[in-house]
Recover the amino acids of this structure.
C-alpha cells in the first residue's frame, strides 16, 4: 500500500470518527447503570403497571388501590417529566398463580419501570422475584407479610431487591392484635386460623408469638384452605379447645364463612371474633351484616387531615362511592413515591427524551427519608419497609354504617 | 388373601399383590392409631362428634346431588362432563337474583315455604336449561368422536360458562339473603341439628328417592338405562336416543339446580367461580362410588362429605399433625386413591345399566 493511499484512508477514517463523535454528542447519553436504563423518546409514555386483586371475593382490596393510583396520576395531570403516564392494570387474583402470570405479562414489556402492587402477599412472593430479576421496582400498598421484607431484624425469606411497601409489616399488626386481646379484652386463651397464604400465616404466627410472650396461651393454631366453605368442623375444634378469642387474619369469602357459621356452633357464644385488614372491606361488612356485630378487626389506622379529606373528595367524585377498603391511601402514597423517585433520578435530554436508570431508582427509594404521604411520614429501610405504621383495632357495632363507619369506630391504637 | 399367598409364588402379580396387602395393613394401622389416640384424648365430646357427622352428612348430600349429573352422563355417553360444576353454579346464580327480589318484596321471610319453592323451580329450570344447551351445542355434534374430544370440549364449556357469568353479572361475591326461618337449631330425637341442615338432608333424600324411582320405574328411565347399556341395540328397539340423552342431561341439571339452592342456603354466597370446587368434589364422589352407578354416586357423595368433616380431626389430630383442617382435601383425595387401589371400580362398581334388569 503506498504512503499516499494510506494517508487518504487515514484521513477518511479520522473524518468518519469526527463525524461519529459529532452525531454521538447529540445523544451523548451512555447507560452505565448496572441493571439497565429505559429510554423514553419525546411524546412516548412513561409506563407503570398496577398488579392488584381486582376480581373475585377480594376485588375490593385491589380495586380500592387501583383507584388510589389513578388519583395519584390525575393529581399530576396524567404527566411526568413532560411524558404521559401510561398505567396498565393486571389482576393478581390474590394468589401465587395470579402473581406469576401478572408479573410475567408486565415484565414482557421492557419499557415498564415499576409496579404498584401486589394486593396480596401470596401473589407478591413470585411477582417480586420476577420483577426483581427484570430490574423493575415494585411498591405495594397492602402486602404486609413479614417474609417479604424483614422478620425480627433479619431479611425475610421472600425478600427481593427492588421490593418496597407503604403498608405496615405484620410484625406490628400481630403485636397490636395480641396486645389488644391480652391487655384490653383480658383474654388468656386464644386460637388462630390462617389459610396458608404468606400474609395470613405470617400474621397468625406473630400474633401467636406475641400473645404467648405476654403470658397467654394459644390453645389452637390451625389453618383452613382458600376455597373452603364449611368452617363448622374447624370451629367445633376451636370450641372444644376452650378458646376465648379466635384471631383469623384471612380473606373473603373464608372469613365470612367463619363469622356466619360460628353463630351455629355450640360453645361459641361468648368467643370474641377478631379479623385483620384483609377483611376490612365494604363487601365483608355487607356479607356478615348483623351476624358480625361485636367483631374486632386490626388494621392500619385510617389517615386523617385535610390532605386525606381532599383525597376522599376526589375519590367520591371520580368513582361515586366512599373508599371501599383500607389501603387506597397506601397505594396513592406508593404511586407518588415512584413518581418522585423517577423525577429525581431520571436523566432528561434537551429534546425531551428521558432516561430512567433502574438501579439508581432503586437506590433512591432505599434511601428515601421523610416522604410526606397521606399515611404519614414514610422512610424506607434496607429491607424495603417504608411505612409509618400505626395500627388500630376497630369494632363492628353498626353494619348499616358500612366500612366507613366501621373504620371510624376505633377502640384501640397501637404504635411501636 | 392370606391363604392364597403361598399359591401365588409363581404368579407375576405376586409382588404387586404383596405391596397392596402391606399397604392395606399400613393404612389400617395409621387410621386405627390416629382414631384411637384422638378418641382416648377425650378432647372432643360425644355431641361434638355427632355435630361433625351431621355437618358432613349435609355437605355430602349436596355433593351427592351434583355427583348424580356426572355419573349419569358418564353412564350414558362415557365421558366426564366437566361443565357440570358450572351447571350447578348457574342455578345458584340465577336463584340469587330471584331470592334477592323476593327478599326486597318481603316474601323471603314473609312466606318462606313459597319463596323457597319459587327459587327452587327457577334454579332447577336454569340449571336444566344450561345442561341441555351444553349438550345440544357442545356435545351432540361430537357424539361420534373419540371420548377424549367431548371431554376436552367440556372443559372449554366450563370456562365459557364461568366467564359468561362473570361478564353478565360481574366478578363480585353475591350474598344470598338470610332466611330467618332457617336460622338456629332444632332438636330431633334428642339431637341438636341446624334447621338448614335438616332442610338439606330431607331435601337430598327426597330428590335421590325421586331420581331412583324415575330411573328404575318409568318408561323414560328404562330408555335411559337401555341407551347406557348399548346405544345401537336400544335404537333398534325403537328407543329415541337423542331424547334419552337430552333427558339424562336435563335430570342431571335439575339435581344440580336443587343442589345449588341448598348449597346457597347453607353458605349464603355465590360468585362465578362457585361451581368449580363443589364440581371437583362431586366428580370425586362419583368416582368414589363407582362412576356410572347412580346409587354409587349417592353413597360416594355422602361418604366424601363425612370423611371431609370427621376425617381430619379423627385421624390427623390423633397423629399429632398440626392444623389438620387444612389437610381436609388431602384426606378426601387419599380416601379416593385408596378406594381406587383396593376397589378400582369404586365402592359399588361402575355400570349404570348392568345387574338391574
Amino acid at each position: 500500500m503506498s504512503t499516499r493511499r494510506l494517508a487518504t484512508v487515514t484521513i477518511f477514517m479520522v473524518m468518519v470518527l469526527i463525524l461519529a463523535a459529532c452525531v454521538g454528542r447529540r445523544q451523548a447519553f451512555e447507560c452505565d447503570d448496572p441493571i439497565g436504563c429505559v429510554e423514553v423518546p419525546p411524546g412516548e409514555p412513561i409506563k407503570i403497571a398496577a398488579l392488584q386483586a381486582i376480581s373475585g371475593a377480594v376485588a375490593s382490596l385491589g380495586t380500592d388501590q387501583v383507584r388510589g393510583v389513578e388519583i395519584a396520576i390525575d393529581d399530576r395531570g396524567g404527566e411526568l417529566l413532560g411524558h404521559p403516564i401510561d398505567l396498565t392494570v393486571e389482576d393478581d387474583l390474590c394468589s401465587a398463580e395470579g402473581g406469576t402470570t401478572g408479573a410475567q405479562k408486565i415484565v414482557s414489556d421492557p419499557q415498564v419501570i415499576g409496579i404498584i402492587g401486589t394486593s396480596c402477599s401470596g401473589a407478591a412472593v413470585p411477582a417480586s422475584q420476577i420483577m426483581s430479576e427484570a430490574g423493575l421496582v415494585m411498591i405495594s400498598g397492602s402486602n404486609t407479610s413479614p417474609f417479604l421484607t424483614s422478620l425480627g431484624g433479619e431479611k425475610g425469606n421472600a425478600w427481593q431487591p427492588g421490593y418496597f411497601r407503604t403498608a405496615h409489616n405484620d410484625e406490628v399488626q400481630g403485636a397490636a392484635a395480641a396486645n389488644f386481646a391480652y391487655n384490653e379484652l383480658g383474654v388468656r386463651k386464644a386460637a388462630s386460623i390462617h389459610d396458608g397464604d404468606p400474609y395470613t400465616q405470617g400474621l397468625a404466627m406473630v400474633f401467636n408469638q406475641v400473645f404467648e410472650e405476654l403470658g397467654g396461651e394459644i390453645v389452637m393454631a390451625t389453618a383452613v384452605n382458600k376455597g373452603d366453605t364449611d368452617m363448622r368442623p374447624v370451629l367445633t375444634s376451636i370450641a372444644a379447645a376452650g378458646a376465648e378469642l379466635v384471631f383469623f387474619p384471612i380473606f373473603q369469602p373464608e372469613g365470612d364463612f367463619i363469622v356466619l357459621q360460628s353463630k351455629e356452633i355450640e360453645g361459641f357464644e361468648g368467643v370474641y371474633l377478631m379479623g385483620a385488614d384483609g377483611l376490612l372491606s365494604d363487601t365483608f361488612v355487607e356479607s356478615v351484616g348483623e351476624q358480625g356485630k361485636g367483631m374486632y378487626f386490626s388494621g392500619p389506622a385510617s389517615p386523617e387531615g385535610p390532605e386525606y379529606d381532599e383525597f376522599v373528595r376526589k375519590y367520591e367524585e371520580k368513582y361515586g362511592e366512599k373508599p371501599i377498603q383500607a389501603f387506597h391511601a397506601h397505594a396513592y402514597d406508593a404511586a407518588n413515591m415512584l413518581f418522585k423517585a423517577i423525577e429525581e433520578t431520571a436523566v432528561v435530554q434537551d429534546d425531551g427524551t428521558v432516561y430512567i436508570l433502574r438501579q439508581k431508582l432503586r437506590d433512591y427509594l432505599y434511601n428515601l427519608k421523610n416522604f410526606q404521604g397521606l399515611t404519614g411520614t414514610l422512610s424506607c429501610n434496607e429491607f424495603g419497609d417504608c411505612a409509618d405504621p400505626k395500627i388500630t383495632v376497630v369494632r363492628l357495632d353498626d353494619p348499616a354504617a358500612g366500612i366507613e363507619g366501621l373504620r371510624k369506630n376505633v377502640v384501640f391504637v397501637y404504635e411501636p | 388373601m392370606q391363604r392364597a399367598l403361598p399359591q401365588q409364588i409363581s404368579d407375576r402379580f405376586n409382588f404387586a399383590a404383596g405391596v397392596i396387602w402391606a399397604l392395606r395393613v399400613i393404612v389400617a394401622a395409621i387410621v386405627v392409631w390416629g382414631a384411637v389416640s384422638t378418641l382416648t384424648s377425650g378432647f372432643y365430646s360425644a355431641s361434638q362428634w355427632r355435630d361433625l357427622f351431621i355437618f358432613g352428612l349435609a355437605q355430602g348430600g349436596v355433593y351427592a346431588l351434583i355427583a348424580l349429573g356426572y355419573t349419569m352422563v358418564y353412564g350414558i355417553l362415557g365421558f366426564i362432563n366437566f361443565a357440570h360444576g358450572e351447571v350447578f353454579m348457574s342455578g345458584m346464580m340465577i336463584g340469587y337474583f330471584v331470592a334477592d327480589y323476593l327478599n326486597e318484596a318481603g316474601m323471603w321471610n314473609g312466606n318462606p315455604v313459597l319463596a323457597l319453592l319459587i327459587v327452587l323451580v327457577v334454579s332447577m329450570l336454569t340449571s336444566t336449561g344450561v345442561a341441555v344447551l351444553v349438550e345440544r351445542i357442545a356435545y351432540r355434534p361430537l357424539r361420534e368422536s373419540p371420548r377424549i374430544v367431548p371431554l376436552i370440549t367440556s372443559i372449554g364449556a366450563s370456562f365459557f360458562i364461568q366467564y359468561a357469568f362473570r361478564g353478565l353479572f360481574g366478578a363480585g361475591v353475591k350474598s344470598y339473603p338470610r332466611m330467618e326461618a332457617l336460622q338456629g337449631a332444632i332438636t330431633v330425637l334428642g339431637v341438636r341439628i341446624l334447621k338448614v341442615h335438616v332442610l338439606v338432608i330431607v331435601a337430598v333424600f327426597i330428590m335421590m328417592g325421586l331420581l331412583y324411582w324415575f330411573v328404575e320405574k318409568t318408561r323414560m328411565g328404562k330408555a335411559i338405562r337401555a341407551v347406557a347399556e348399548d346405544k345401537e341395540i336400544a335404537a333398534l328397539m325403537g328407543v329415541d336416543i337423542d331424547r334419552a340423552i337430552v333427558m339424562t342431561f336435563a335430570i342431571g341439571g335439575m339435581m344440580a339446580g336443587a343442589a345449588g339452592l341448598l348449597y346457597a342456603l347453607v353458605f349464603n354466597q355465590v360468585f362465578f367461580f362457585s361451581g368449580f370446587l363443589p364440581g371437583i368434589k362431586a366428580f370425586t364422589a362419583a368416582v368414589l362410588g363407582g362412576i356410572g352407578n347412580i346409587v354409587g354416586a349417592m353413597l360416594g357423595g355422602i361418604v366424601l362429605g363425612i370423611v371431609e368433616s370427621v376425617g381430619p380431626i379423627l385421624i390427623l389430630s390423633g397423629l399429632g399433625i398440626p392444623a389438620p383442617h387444612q389437610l381436609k382435601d388431602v384426606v378426601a383425595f387419599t380416601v379416593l386413591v385408596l378406594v381406587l387401589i383396593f376397589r378400582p371400580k369404586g365402592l359399588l362398581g361402575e355400570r349404570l345399566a348392568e345387574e338391574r334388569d
Summary: The interface with chain A takes residues 43-45, 47-48, 51-52, 55, 59, 166, 171-173, 175, 178, 184-185, 192, 194, 267-269, 271, 273, 277, 308-310, 312-313, 317, 322-326, 328-329 of chain B (CB under 8 Å). The two ends of chain B are 32 Å apart (CA to CA).
